[in-house]
Amino acid sequence: MIDLHTHSNFSDGTDSPAELINKALAAGVKIIALTDHDSVAGIAQASAALRPGISLVAGAEISCQSDEGVSVHMLGLLFDTENKELIATMDKTRENRHGRMQRIIERLNEAGIAISIDDVLAELADGATLGRPHLADALVKKGVVKSRDEAFTQMLHNKSKFYVAHYSPTPVEAIRLIKAAGGVAVIAHPMASHRGRTISFESFGDLITAGLDGVEVDHRDHSPDEKNALIQLARENNLVMTGASDYHGNGKLNQLAEYTTHPEQWERLEALATERRVITL
């Protein structure tokens, strides 16, 4: 099995990279991509935890925003993790997350919800990328909500009055950076409409022109109709079709390998990178 979208506690997951590798191996995953938000900081630990039977794809889920203000997530896979321009862009995005978090907290406080930035940072592992799931965990600990899912459903979703956007590259720019670093670009859960506004199908033209390699078709947050529309889009534009769990560990329903990528699709995708960068023992 091949799972190309997972997270560790170096962003908003709850498992360490080593725990993630061990759980993936136990689940029968043969190839796993670690795609923490705007970070490759967990790749070294994941690599060190590898054992026979499982290989690692270094990656990142890059936060993007379209010209229309729509949040887009772009999976960068198989790129040079020391590429200075791509790493600098991800660093800038992460740094901006702290100011954004403070503004979200201010809005929550104005609504009478007692939470502080210190409460949120207490949920953050060393070196991790700050995100709304850490705020959700702090709200759970405070007794405001019962779970991460409840926090997002009630107050942290993209349409919420508490939502605050943050700096991020455009999807076209993210694709350019990934390709310049020798990797492949796959748009993550592009039609997950319950998360908030999604990009239009017309927008895919610019992404494909920029070099988009694939689309995440099989994902928990896609309805059957959305999945079918993405399959048609991929076939018409010769895009690789991937499937992935978007696993985050505890607090989210997603399970490792609940959706996977077909080996033939993976072979197509890997061939589009400038080098073979799969990490094995």
UniProtKB/TrEMBL annotation:
Pfam family, one: PHP
GO molecular function: 5'-3' DNA exonuclease activity; 5'-3' RNA exonuclease activity
Sequence ranges assigned to domain Polymerase/histidinol phosphatase N-terminal in this UniProt record: 2-66
InterPro entries from the UniProt entry: PHP_dom, PHP_domain, Pol/His_phosphatase_N, Pol/histidinol_Pase-like
Record-linked PANTHER family: EXONUCLEASE (PTHR42924), POLYMERASE_HISTIDINOL PHOSPHATASE N-TERMINAL DOMAIN-CONTAINING PROTEIN (PTHR42924:SF3)
Protein name: Unannotated protein
